[in-house]
Amino acid sequence: MAQHFATIAAEMATRQVCRNPPENLARLSRQGWNLERAWATTRTLPTLAPARRETQTQNQTGTRDKPKREDMAIALRTFVVLDNLQPQLASFIGKTARGFLPLPGMASLFVEIAPGIAINRVTDVALKATTVAPAIQIVERAFGLLEVHDRDQGAVRSAGRAILADLGVEEGQRIKPRIATNQVIRAIEPYQAQIINKDSWGMMILPGDSLFILETEPAGYAAYAANEAEKAANVKLIEVRPFGAFGRLWMSGSESEIDSAREAAIAALEGVEGVAGK
Question: In 3D, which of 147, 40, 31 has the Cα closest to residue 98?
Answer without folding.
Answer: 147
